[in-house]
Amino acid sequence: MTIHTYAAKEAGEKLEPFTYEPGELGSQEVEIAVEYCGICHSDVSVVDNDWGISEYPVVPGHEIVGKVAAVGDAVTSLQVGEQVGLGWFSSSCMKCEWCLSGDHNLCQSAEFTIVGRYGGFADKVRAHQNWVFQLPAGLNPQTVGPFFCGGITVFNPIVQLDLKASDRVGVIGIGGLGHMALQFLSAWGCEVTAFSGSAEKEQEARNLGAHHFVNSRDPEAVKAMENSFDAIFSTVNADLDWESYLATLRPRGRLHFLGVTPNPTAVQMFSLLLGQKSISASPVGSPGITKQMLEFVARKQLEPMVEFYPFEQVNEAMDKLRHGKPRYRIVLQR
What we know:
There is one protein chain. By secondary structure, the protein is α/β, with parallel strands linked by helices. About 25% of the residues lie in helices and about 25% in strands. The protein has two domains: about 5-150 and about 285-334, Quinone Oxidoreductase, Chain A, domain 1; about 150-280, 3-Layer(aba) Sandwich (Rossmann fold), CATH 3.40.50.720. The protein has helices spanning about 40-45, 95-100, 150-160, 180-190, 200-205, 220-225, 240-245, 270-275, 285-300, 315-325, and strands at about 5, 15-20, 30-40, 65-70, 85, 90, 110, 125-130, 130-135, 170, 190-195, 210-215, 230-235, 250-255, 280, 305-310, 330-334. The longest helix is centred in the last third of the chain and has 14 residues, at about 285-300. It is globular. The relative contact order is 0.15.
């Protein structure tokens, strides 16, 4: 058997057709025939080796939707023909304290779908059954892919921080992550405020669920929000004036990072100490929380905003993400 993919042979190179022989299907593995695959900024980072962990050739793609093509002899949770999704993780050890407690996403030997193995810019991809998710009825397979990385990234802290419907939450950035965070938090019942440097996005932010909008380029507008929020999600990959955002938190408030800042984040200790505030971050969620997210999305009928490209235009799509401004996610389709 041969799997056909698009791969980068070196850091930053364009993707080219690449084939490999996957070998025998593992007893706990599921083989997915890929129909759709979202492009996440993490795909760009791994292709470019921004994090220093890439192994070439790199086959990106970790927001995968397709049908089960084959299952290993020990797979009990899925059947051939079922429509499924796969995200950032493709396997974990299943025996450490984190896996046994349900926090598989914290497993120290978890495998990334696009690092050290080949991802979903392909006709087929394989993963452990625990990380492959059956799609609930009512979800649109064309648009659900981005929820398997970007979506679970912003849904996971809602659960981890035990946010209540009565909480007031700010979201910094209305982009690939932020536009989904606005939808999730609003549907959860929170009072949501969008922070964006793009004033023209105000109506769109409100359409996505924001109750309030703050132009983050206006220091006075940010200052006017002091002592307002129980939590703030930062979804941007940028260095900002974090002291001003800490000031907008209520006592015991939390500034939670979901985007990767280019430089170390430094704050004054009194900004945390006096209000018993905290700074935190989280990765994508566990299998259990991912399933919870999918059920929530199906119940609330949420969808990311998506632009579609055929797989054959993968390099054009990658360039759009690198240099353009997709609104707000890109999905490759067959």
